[in-house]
Write a structure and sequence with these properties.
Blueprint (H helix, E strand, L loop, with lengths): L1 E6 L1 E2 L2 E2 L1 H17 L2 E7 L14 E5 L9 H14 L2 E7 L2 H14 L2 E6 L5 E2 L2 E7 L4 E7 L4 E5 L14 E4 L28 E5 L10 H10 L2 E4 L1 H5 L20 E5 L5 H7 L4 E6 L6 H4 L2 E4 L2 H17 L1
Parallel strand pairs: 1-4, 1-6, 4-5, 5-12, 6-11, 7-11, 13-14, 13-15, 15-16, 16-17
Antiparallel strand pairs: 2-3, 8-9, 9-10
Helix pairs in contact: 2-3, 4-8
């Protein structure tokens, strides 16, 4: 028996979530007194995963697996799970994995627990703690199937170094190409993505227009953060829809979320609730966001942000 972890990568480089799921998988394997196996697809240097406890790494390198296709990836993951007799499969909770995991669950006849936030509280019965009701509550879910799939919520377990000696092997997967629809994907390069960012700087209609976004981008650059926006901003075409965060956009689970000129509609709060520290800057002291914020500044963004950028630059210089 084994615990299988899928360590995702983009353009050959591992996402931070890859290190987190390997760290998590290592501890689950210890709980089950089982072996840990890590699968990578088109990763440049898989050996760095040994640092987080991976003892056996299986690599798949195939150009037909780029860009991501849920059916193809699920087929590879299923083949590896069967070969390694995996009883538990761990993936992250990225958008890709939300498509991937259910297909693997069907293939393996496995129970799937998404948005898991902690190690199993029990292995018999197998019980995991999950986020529920748009991150407003938790549920303890029992998985009764022989095989189990866990979708680990970002930033819920953390990255833990646990160096281990191990092997790295190539896995020759059978990859079907017939019936697979290929689509072109535009990727933003040279910027921190919302999915990978530890810090997110987000803005809303309080900025009054797209011409005022350079100061948001400058603040994000100083903080090495990703930029984001509220739904009305993307609907107005001020910012691309890829930056829309919230319940109907991209979920955010960053360490720091800064909301500027966003009132805090319930749909927006539901999508960013998993962020650890939330800072709000708004002229309206009655804005709903202040009730959810850890820190709040009542003030004009056009006055506050330039001063904040100046102070941060001085702090970094020192």
């Amino acid at each position: 028996m084994s615990v299988l972890v899928f360590a995702d990568s983009t353009e050959g480089k591992f996402k931070k979530t890859a290190f987190e799921v390997v760290s998590y998988g290592k501890k689950v394997a210890e709980q089950l007194e089982s072996n840990l196996v890590v699968l990578t697809i088109n990763a440049t240097d898989a050996s760095e995963l040994h640092k987080y406890g991976a003892t056996k790494i299986l690599t798949v390198a195939n150009d037909s697996l780029s860009p991501f296709n849920a059916k193809q990836y699920a087929a590879v993951l299923t083949q590896v799970a069967n070969k390694e007799n995996a009883t538990v499969v761990v993936v992250d909770s990225s958008i890709d994995s939300l498509y991937l995991a259910p297909i693997v669950a069907v293939n393996l006849e496995a129970g799937y627990a998404s948005n898991t936030v902690a190690l199993p509280t029990s292995t018999s019965p197998f019980t995991v703690k999950r986020k529920a009701f748009s991150n407003k509550a938790f549920s303890n879910t029992v998985i009764t199937t022989d095989k189990k799939i866990i979708g680990l919520a970002k930033n819920s377990f953390g990255i833990h170094e646990n160096p281990a000696e191990g092997t790295t092997e190539n896995f020759d997967a059978e990859i079907a190409t017939s019936g697979i629809k290929s689509e072109s994907i535009e990727r933003v390069t040279g910027k921190v993505t919302i999915a990978d960012a530890d810090t997110v700087v987000s803005a809303g209609r309080g900025l009054k227009g797209p011409e005022n976004w350079p100061m948001i981008e400058e603040l994000a650059e100083v903080l090495n953060a990703a930029t984001a926006c509220s739904k009305p901003v993307s609907d107005l075409g001020w910012r691309p829809h890829s930056e829309h965060v919230g319940q109907t956009g991209k979920p955010v689970a960053s360490n720091l979320y800064i909301a500027i000129g966003i009132s805090g509609a319930i749909q927006h709060l539901a999508g960013i609730n998993a962020s650890k520290v939330k800072v709000v800057i708004n002229t309206d002291p009655e804005a709903p966001f202040f009730k959810a914020a850890d820190y709040g500044v009542v003030g004009d963004a056009f006055e506050v942000i330039p001063q904040l950028i100046e102070k941060l630059k001085a702090f970094k210089a020192a």
